Amino acid sequence: MNPLIVPLVALSLLAGETCAQASSEIRISSAGSQPSVKGAAENFTGKVRVDGLFKGDHPARIGGGTVTFEPGARTAWHTHPLGQTLIVTAGVGYVQQEGGPRQEIHPGDIVWIPPQTRHWHGATAANGMTHIAIAEAQDGKAVTWAEKVSEAQYEGASVAAQKVVASQTVTHTQPASDTLSAKQQTIPLIAAFMATSDMPTLNVALNQGLDAGLTGSEAKEILTQLYAYVGFPRSLNALSELMNVVEARKQRGIHDAPGREPSRAIPTGEALLAAGTANQTRISGEPVKGPVFDFAPVINQFLQAHLFGDIFERDNLDWQSRELATVGALAATPGAESQLRSHMRASMRVGLSAEQLRQVSEVLAARGDELSAKRASTALSQALAASGG
C-alpha cells in the first residue's frame, strides 16, 4: 500500500455546518436517503460526485462521504488540518504529495494523509475512481483549498507512470481516438458472430483478432463475459471454437501471446457488491434505477455483484474492449435495441469516441452483417441525440 495522501472532498462540503447535538441513540442513514452533491467547480477539475455525506454529533469531529471521480477528474491542491483516511472502493486513481511522485491506487487500498500535507488526488485519465473518505475537522474546518492542478502537472505525472506500468497492467480504458485499432476492430466482429452462433465466421474473426494482437487471455475473456448478455450455451460453444482455433494455429507454427490473468483478487461479499455498484454507476453515468428494478430488485443485485462486480473487476481486459464486445453482441441480437443504446452511451463514458463507434457499424457492414450494422448505427444516432452530441 502506498503510504501517501488523498483529500476528503466530502468534508469541504461539510465544513460550514454547525455541530449537531450529541445523541445517545444509534442513527442509521439509509443508502440513497441523501441527494448526491456535485464537487464545487472552483475546487475540482472535471466531474466529481459526493454521496452518503455524514458528520458525527458533537463532541465528535469526524465526517466524510463516498466520492466518485469521472475519468480525468481531480481535486485542486489542498491540505487537511488533522489528516485523512481514504479507502478506495472502485476504479483506479492517483495521489500526489507536493514534491513527491504520483502514486496509483486501487480498490482495497487504504491511504493515510498526514496533517497539513499539500497534495491532490483524483481519477486517472482513462479510469474513474470511487473512494470512502474520512477525516476530522479542526475549529469547524476540514480542508484548506489552494490552486487547481494544471494540465501539465496532471499529464506530466501520467507519462512517467505509464512507462513503468505499460508492460505490466491493463487499465480499464484507453484515451479516446478517432479510429479503432486493428485489434479493436475485430472485437465487435467476434462478439457479433458469437452471439449468432455463426461458427465458421467466428473462426475467421478469431483468427483475425489473434493476428491483430489479441492475446489468448483477452479472447477468452471476451467470450466469457458475453455469457451475461447472450447466454451460457453460446459462450461455451464460442470458447470451444477458440480452443480449436488456437490448436490449429499451433499446428501451423503460430504461437499466440497467452496474455495474463487478473492482477488482483476480486472482492467478495459486501465489498464485491460495493465495487460492482460503483462500476455500474460510473459506466451508466448515474445510479441505476427504474420500474423493472423496483419490480424485481434481485436482477439489479445480480448485475451489480456479478456482471459489474465479478466480471468488470477483472483487469485482464480493459473496459473499452468490454464495451466493444457488448455493443457487437447486442447489435447482433434483435430486440435488444434499448440495451444497445445504453451501451453506446456507456462506451463513450469509458473513452470510446463517436467516430470509433461509427466504425463498429462499418466493420459489421463490411463483413456482410447489414442488419447488425444498421442496429448499431441507429442506436448510436439515438444515443448521441439524447445526449445532445
UniProtKB/TrEMBL annotation:
Q: Give GO MF terms, alphabetically.
A: peroxiredoxin activity
**Signal sequence residues:** 1-22
Q: Which SUPFAM superfamilies match?
A: AhpD-like (SSF69118), RmlC-like cupins (SSF51182)
> Any idea which UniProt keywords this protein has?
Signal
* Positions of the Carboxymuconolactone decarboxylase-like domain: 301-373
User: What highest taxon heads this organism's lineage?
Assistant: Bacteria
For the Cupin type-2 domain, which residue ranges apply?
66-124
Record-linked InterPro entries: AhpD-like, CMD-like, Cupin_2, HNL-like_cupin, RmlC-like_jellyroll, RmlC_Cupin_sf
Pfam family example for this protein?
A: CMD
* Record's keyword annotation contains Signal: yes
| Name used for this protein in its record | Carboxymuconolactone decarboxylase
Native source species: Pseudomonas fluorescens
